[in-house]
Design brief:
elongated; about 300 residues; 12 strands; six-stranded mixed sheet; binds alpha-L-arabinofuranose
Length: about 300
């Protein structure tokens, strides 16, 4: 162990404070708010000078924020990319000025691997696989036999968690449930409650006989619950629901019997991020992907686990 580098003196030798430019996606979900709080608190704890910018879910805002961090000559840039593509130009500008870039939460697709140092975040493909595996248990518990008609609420179009959760889920479905499971409708709800509610209402119009909802995050699931209730159906019974994240409101809905299972995606990435940022600034080698550890929860665990949820 190289030892903790999140000292309150702000890192090596207690000299000049490390300046970190951080571009956040937005504030679309409970997960995102928890992530923002974690980043801000950990930067403070580490004694860094944090320049925080909220992109309001727009890539062009993130690109401008990164350009402004470059102009301000920050020590390290960290960002959680709204979408996976379209970053090469701005990342090349950072590289030309020798400012290292750390990705957090979400990945990018780039032609040149050297344009970012590392990713601190979850394995979203695995979250999709885990969602399909836990759905098997949910169906068994509910005594559901035969064909399964699935509605999928996707995250933001083009975002890593939306692409990869759909991919992981489909992978298990194609391998183990080719004959019985079918995704009958799938559309983006942009990771928001309002989006989840609106799209689910439309799903119920076109496909009133949906058995299962797989929502890429809790917030869309919670919005969908409102639409399901408005349509006179019981969420968690008439329509079985699996979501991703595990924020407090998700656990509340699960303890009320309205969500059947949650695949955890941990937003508390701040402490690990600050540690990596210091190492990168000090020129130490870091792993290419620092993965987050996560669990899965069934409805019968909700009441017991709820009080200990940290976000
Ligand atoms: O990138 C992580 C995802 O972004 C979370 O699952 C979702 O809630 C958030 O908006």
């Amino acid at each position: 162990d190289e030892g903790s580098s999140t000292s309150s003196s702000g890192g090596s030798g207690g000299g000049k404070k490390l300046t970190l430019g951080f571009s956040q996606v937005g504030s679309e979900s409970g997960w995102r708010s928890a992530n923002t709080d974690s980043v801000k608190a950990s930067a403070k704890e580490a004694g860094y000078n944090l320049k925080f910018s909220d992109a309001q879910q727009k890539q062009e805002n993130q690109i401008s924020a990164i350009r402004s961090f470059i102009a301000q000559k920050v020590d390290v840039i960290a960002f959680s990319p709204v979408v996976v593509t379209g970053w090469d130009a701005v990342l090349k500008e950072a590289k030309a000025k020798k400012i290292p870039v750390v990705l957090t939460d979400r990945s990018v697709e780039t032609s040149d691997e050297s344009l970012y140092v590392t990713l601190v975040g979850s394995d979203f493909t695995d979250e999709g696989r885990r969602a399909a595996k836990i759905l098997e248990k949910v169906l068994e518990k509910a005594g559901h036999k035969g064909a399964v008609k699935i509605a999928q609420l996707e995250g933001t179009t083009g975002a890593a968690p939306a692409i990869e959760r759909a991919k992981g889920f489909k992978e298990v479905m194609d391998a183990d449930h080719k004959d019985d499971w079918k995704i009958v409708v799938s559309q983006t709800g942009d990771f928001t409650r309002a989006g989840g509610k609106q799209v689910m209402a439309a799903f119920l119009q076109s496909n009133p006989d949906i058995d299962v909802l797989f929502a890429h995050n809790d917030d869309m699931g919670i919005g969908a619950i409102q639409a399901i209730e408005a349509a006179g159906k019981k969420p968690g019974k008439d329509i079985l629901i699996v979501t991703v994240d595990g924020v407090k409101d998700g656990f509340v809905a699960m303890s009320e019997g309205k969500i059947n299972a949650i695949v955890e995606c941990n937003p508390l990435l701040g402490p690990q991020l600050m540690e990596v940022v210091q190492k990168v600034k000090d020129g130490e080698t870091v792993e290419r992907w620092i993965k987050t550890e996560e669990s899965d929860f069934m409805q019968d665990q909700a009441k017991e686990v709820l009080p200990s949820r940290k976000y």
